[in-house]
Every structure is written in C-alpha cells, then in structure tokens.
Amino acid sequence: xxxxVVIEKAENNYAAYVPDLxxxxxxxxxxxxxxxxxxxxxxxxxxGMREDGLPIPEPxxxxxxxxxx
Length: 69
Known about the structure:
Blueprint: E1 6-9, E2 14-17, E3 25-28, H1 31-51
Antiparallel strand pairs: 1-2, 2-3
C-alpha cells in the first residue's frame, strides 16, 4: 500500500505523520532520516494492527500542491 506522509520542518529536526494511520509518527534530524523512520514506522504500525486483528485502513488521503498569488 502507498500512504500519504506529511513531513514538517521543526526548529531542530523533522517530523512526519501518516494521516490515514493515526498515531503513526516519526522524527529525524534530517529529511532523509525522517523518511527512513516513517517508512519503518508504517511497517511496524501495520504489523501491530494485523497482530491485534484490526482492519488495515485503505489509503485515502491525497496530497496536492496549489499555487497561490
């Protein structure tokens, strides 16, 4: 599955979360580190949901950039 991920620059690091998987978050010192961390977090999050017998949410969030004047 392919989930949308939001990456935000904080004061001293980066943070990421997955809108379709509440509670699935990661942080990292660099953008690359947070991307690696959130990828691993998604895998672990889904594994935990399967182990708990919870339904896996279908990806529904979409990302689009909009130009504003």
